[in-house]
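seq/struct pair 1
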Amino acid sequence: MIGLEGALIGFALLLFLLFVGLHIAVALFTVSVLGAWWYFGDTMLNPFGTFMWGTLNNFLLVAIPLFVLMGEILVRGGITERMYRALSDWLKPLPGGLLHTNIFASTIFAAISGSSVATAATIGTVAFPTFRAQNYSERWISGTIASGATLGILIPPSINLIIYGAITNTSIGALFTAGILPGLILAAMFVAIVAVSATIKPEIAGPRGKLAPWHERRKRLADLLPPLIIFIIIMGSIYGGWATPTEAAGVGVLAALLLVGFHHELNLRMLRDAMLATITTTAMTLLILVAAAYLNFILGVLGVPKLVSGAVADISASPLVVLLIIVCLYLLLGCFLDALAMMITTIPIIWPIIDHLGYSSVWFGIFLVMMCELALITPPVGMNLYIVQSVRGRGHVGTVIAGVLPFLACILALVALISVFPRLVLN
């Protein structure tokens, strides 16, 4: 058994390694190896190869590269750009104008890509050239893209929810179902923030401009059908019991290929680029997963989860107070850790506390993903901030940070809402 001091030293070392710029997987593996060697010698190091194979030999994890590939095909096949144009035609009259397009497009693309980073890069690439010709506030353009993209890990199919389900043996179908309502509520809150702000300060949005003729707008509505069709195919097959999440992802890839082929964008070069991007993203994700799973195994053997849950059980505070402490902890961690690393490394420590409070693993999965959403747009490490700044290509990242602040408040408000009313997630 490890003492509380040892656990804190290990956690501090992990934060230090990440702070100095070590790759997430390398930092996780370093801390786990040092902990195993310090307390057990070579005993826990010898079976690492077998442990790695056991972690990755999971049919559920095949869904990750398939969902990534599906998103890459849709982006490179021009489906996303067509969807964005169709949305912009109909959202211009709203207060805030095209800013709403970023949120709606992110919501739809999130429902087919499963990745916040991919959503931020994709929507940003399409959006910035459109906005710069119309004198919109760069702060609000950046903020709506970076924040809207966080929906990519909440609205199903979410790669983070798949990984969480694989680690905790929680039903992926139940997690996907639970993520829909909070995701839509959060998107509505984002839209409301933009509308209210643009009503109070019209200068944040450019001129609403001339609407396209009615027949053109109606014709472009067809460009919204491909994402909707894919979403219905994936979620319908899972909820109907016709396919596992992995099989549904495979069907989604086939549907994406057919749709891109229908628009005459399917070619060998596009497929090669999509597959190379998929390999890179999948390799990075699974490397982090293996390293984190090994760290979780070492923590479990050392009794860290039992130690933490026992310490919490001794605290005479209400469940909501304990939950508030956990939220504050995640807010702090989100300033220094990547969202996926934060999720994977804290599950074995925080879950016993949540279980002690009486919450379900499905509720905790949605709660944890929402805290990861905050981490994606929390400086100084928030990945979406730098993705958007990179696509933006000018100015300082401080503009993007200022732009996400109102949306950070929305996510925190929804976290409070599902904490007080858990049935928003479980219904």
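seq/struct pair 2
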Amino acid sequence: MANDAVAGNATRVAQRRPGDGDDPVRAVLAAYTHDLITAVDETLATFLTAEVDSLTEIDISMGRFAATAREAVLVGGKRIRSTFAYWGWRGAVGGTEALPPVLPALAALELLHTFALVHDDVMDASTTRRGRPTAHVAIAEQHIAAGHRGDPGRFGEAVAVLIGDLCMVWADRLMAQATVPSARLFEVRRCYDQMRVETVAGQYLDVLGENDPASWSVNRALRVARYKTASYTVQRPLLFGACLAGVPVDDALVSAYTRYGLAVGEAFQLRDDLLGVYGDPADTGKPAGDDLRTGKPTTLLMLARELATPAQLRAMDRAGDGPVDRLAELVEETGAVARVERMIAERVSDALAALDAAPVDRTARTALTGLATAATSRRA
């Protein structure tokens, strides 16, 4: 019965059409927001219940550990990667192809995302995620409450690394449940592996930038955005969806997805840079100003230093150890915020131009148009 419900939700995503007088973008976005995300979440919940039960049989403490990992996956999240992968697939196959055979592969991307988030929070020493304590912080608190020996912070970080690792393995196991031809699954796996390699590469560059900011530049910051965010948030999920549909790598649709995905993915990260400084924590679920406090060489900060007058640069250096609000004001006064907003708009325009000539299903074109705007003008 649960599988029938998932199939029904997924089918309605493809079948809905905007009615007369509707805003087509809003109509399609409303369709996927409920139905597709419901289908993905149900797939994840069913899969993770079986996995947690299996680990509980090893030891009751393993069950608690696995349940913490499951919570990290299921609590919150926009399911952006699954959504882009879905429309990459739907844009190739049209509106009649059944979704259940590929749904496990789409849902697996959310497990990959959780792996990246949990490890990223450890590396950044972040305390909150989606308005809740990060995994390593929550586990450290459990360590204290249980009265265990040793350093709770170190224990929390070690267990969080294992949670991320487990989510990576779970992603592989769930993807294997997709029912597509073996030869096609090989190509899907190749795309997925490239996504993972680029994610690690981007994460390393991000860590390196924090420790070697003097050698950083706007171009290098954009390279981090390209590999840490654009690749595994938009571009590779789209191409992953195309692979699931059996689209050849030299097809015009792949070229369009590549261009669209890079543009929207970079714009997505640029918006993240702005939200990290000027966003409302009630919306973002994270404290504002962390990037400025640590001197993280984001595109925003690199542009601010590039555009600043000598007097502004001296003021920014002096403000570095003071209230973050003052440093945020100085960054805006350089014109860097306005420049980043223009960069976002330029990339969205380029993404939409890539769609114009793409051989993509009409409903998918409408959805991808809406996604380009929704993903880059968000408040969280």
